[in-house]
Amino acid sequence: MVNYGGISCWVDIDNSAAMEYDIRTFEDQRIVTCWIASEVGKSFSVSWRNSFLPAPTAGHVFMDGNECGGRVLYGPSTVCAKHEGVTDTRTVKPFVFAPLALTDDDAFLGDSSNHRKLGCIEVAIYPVQIFGLVPVVANSSTLSEIKVHERSKKSVTQQIRLAEPRMLAVPQNAVAHRFTGPPLVTFVFKYRPLDILRASGIIPPPLPPLQLKRKPEAASLPYAEPPSEEDDLSDAEEIRVLREKLYALEAKRARKTRVKEEEENIPPNTAGWSRKKAKLSVN
């Protein structure tokens, strides 16, 4: 919703609040503008609320520049005013987005002044004095089909029409009132199709789909058959033989080390005698 001076306003499309984009406030004119995405065939309503202004207010609604009635709020409240179409005492013709009628008739080429507010939903909030309830006077607004030359439509491709009437659950009355001053604020909702708003950069493009990282696939390994009992026995035999060789090598190395140590500990004279004895024994 958009806000100004304690008054909030929004558009519901198919009973869901429309997202507003590029909201701008013009303080000197007391105007708040924004963009909403519209879709042909969908109905909509306009609602507003006075949060704390201590005076009655009236909201008057304009569709494509055509006055379409309004609602009165008696003072600040959590209750909102909802305007969903053109009403009489017992029926309502809901607002609906419709395609714009195009023509190649050059008679419509210069007829742009009458369509200056085409593509706009306006809600003007006035301070009012209330006089009481009166019978509802049928609204003369029909929102008839608008024809625009195909070369002057620009980005506007839709208009607002009235759907088939439906019965109201409770008959309505009107509130007689008069304006006591200029509009406190005017809310302007400029409606366009979603693709046009995106192409114009008003609505950001949709986010790319989330790419989930794939788990690395398990490396394919060659299949190995489980060892048989014979393989187990041959492996055990090989281990036993290797151990025996290891023990023999360690014992041999230990003997060499011991002999070397004994020779180093023999006294010099004894060593010479031993060498002589060894020589004589050979002869």
Q: What would the average pLDDT be, to the nearest integer?
A: 83
Question: Count of helical segments?
Answer: 3
Please outline the major beta sheet.
9 strands, antiparallel
Percentage of residues in helical conformation: 10-25%
Written description of the protein model:
The protein is of the alpha+beta class. It folds into two domains: 198 residues, no CATH class; 53 residues. The chain contains three helices and 18 strands. Strands 1, 2, 3, 6, 9, 10, 11, 15 and 16 form a nine-stranded antiparallel beta sheet that branches. Strands 4, 5, 7, 8, 13, 17 and 18 form a seven-stranded mixed beta sheet that branches. Strand 7 and strand 8 form a beta hairpin. InterPro entries: DUF7918. It holds the Pfam family DUF7918. This is DUF7918 domain-containing protein.
Write the layout of secondary structure elements.
Layout: E1 2-4, E2 7-13, E3 16-17, E4 21-26, E5 31-38, E6 43-50, E7 57-63, E8 66-73, E9 81-83, E10 85-87, E11 91-99, E12 101-103, E13 120-135, E14 147-149, E15 158-162, E16 166-167, E17 173-179, E18 185-193, H1 194-199, H2 229-264, H3 268-282
Parallel strand pairs: 5-18, 12-14
Antiparallel strand pairs: 1-2, 2-3, 2-6, 4-5, 6-9, 6-11, 7-8, 7-13, 10-11, 11-15, 11-16, 13-17, 13-18
Pfam families: DUF7918
Organism: Mycena venus
Protein name: DUF7918 domain-containing protein
